[in-house]
Specification:
The protein is mainly alpha-helical and 200 residues long. The chain has 2 domains: 51 residues, Homeodomain-like (Arc Repressor Mutant, subunit A, Orthogonal Bundle), CATH 1.10.10.60; 139 residues, Tetracycline Repressor, domain 2. 74% of the residues lie in helices and 0% in strands. The chain contains 10 helices and no strands. The protein is elongated.
């Protein structure tokens, strides 16, 4: 019997879920294709019908996480009844909390992050492009509503992304509580906003 696309997608989703659990608990390096296959009750040979290697699984896990984060941040960009200042604070806080919640109690996930950063830089670039585009939208709102004075919105969005990347780096998340991290994020965004504010 031929496997339907829906069945194939379900099996792939189960494989990714099992792999994510392995990466969280044991790290990327100590996770094997055979172990992932066993976790979803299939042979290693059968697993290779869906993914060529562990690297492909890692990339798909990263894409899934990035898509989840992008959806959260995109909702903030279009959320009604927020001014640009509120939106920028919420944007950075949401990104920070997403990364903190994912990484703080699973330090071995850092192996996966390092792997993606080294072997799939195109995914990082794509994620950054989406983030910059979202921040551009927030800055444009601020300019349109007279909150911000920004000459080069695209360049400023890129600078803001770089200034807030600290709150997405796993190594720092094990040094602070979520309350400390949130306060630092508020302080950094407040400093940025003070520099963006339109002066009379």
């Amino acid at each position: 019997m031929t496997e339907s696309k829906q069945e194939s997608n379900k099996i792939k989703a189960d494989i990714l879920l099992a792999a994510q659990k392995r990466f969280r608990n044991f790290g990327y390096g100590k996770t094997t294709m055979a172990e992932v296959a066993s976790d979803v009750n299939m042979s290693a040979a059968n697993l290779y019908r869906y993914f060529d290697n562990k690297q492909d699984i890692a990339a798909e896990c990263a894409i899934q996480c990035m898509d989840d984060l992008n959806a959260l941040l995109e909702n903030i960009v279009v959320m009604p009844n927020l001014d640009a200042i509120q939106r920028l604070h919420l944007y950075v806080q949401t990104s920070m909390r997403y990364h903190f919640d994912m990484m703080h109690d699973a330090p071995r996930l850092n192996e996966l992050v390092e792997n993606i950063s080294t072997n799939h830089t195109e995914l990082i670039y794509k994620r950054n492009q989406k983030s910059e585009k979202q921040i551009v939208s927030i800055l444009q709102q601020g300019v349109d509503e007279g909150e911000f004075a920004v000459n080069d919105i695209a360049k400023t969005a890129s600078a803001i992304l770089k200034a807030t990347v600290f709150f997405t780096v796993p190594v720092f998340m094990h040094l602070y509580t979520i309350e400390e991290f949130e306060k630092m994020a508020v302080d950094v965004v407040t400093l940025i906003i003070n520099g963006l504010r339109k002066t009379n």
